[in-house]
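Weekly modeling sync, notes
Attendees: S.R. (lead), two postdocs, one rotation student

Agenda item 3: backlog of single-chain predictions. S.R. asked that every request posted to the team notebook include the full sequence so nobody has to chase files. The rotation student volunteered to paste the first one in as an example of the format we agreed on. Action items at the bottom.

Example entry:
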Amino acid sequence: MIVTLHVATGALAGAAARSRLAALLLGPPLHLLGDVLPHEDIASRRFETASGVAAVLALAAAYGPLDPVTLGAVSASAPDLEHILSLPRPGGRPLFPSHRWSRLHHGGKFPAWAQLLIAGALLVTLCRNARGAACRRRDDRRCMAQGAGSHLGEGGWG
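Predicted structure, as returned to the notebook:
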């Protein structure tokens, strides 16, 4: 799965979990599930890195760096850091299971352009809902009176 979709699915899980710890714990299993799904990858490591970093920065700007949404995004995409950082490789193989054992990383039917489109839609939706989510966490009546939007779990996509 492309990095941007790992970021988006992790962010969505963080929004649903509403807990920092849960968001961090859900990230790696989500990454594994995304890699097991037969998919195309994007050949450009530069594009993958730039789009993943931009997506995480957008979420951090919208929600804050320690919000479950941002932490879920970071946690779900973190296993792909071993593709760009010089991490230890026991036996010369990657650390993360779906990168280590090729049987777990399936190429195939889910085109990269569709993954990018879905990731973009999820990220835009999450960022648009960020202000309403922040208002609800603070229970700030002034925010709600200004029509701060809806949270994914409270009234739809908004």
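Discussion: group reviewed the output briefly. Confidence is low (pLDDT under 50) at residues 153-158.
Action items: rotation student to repeat for the remaining queue; S.R. to check formatting next week.
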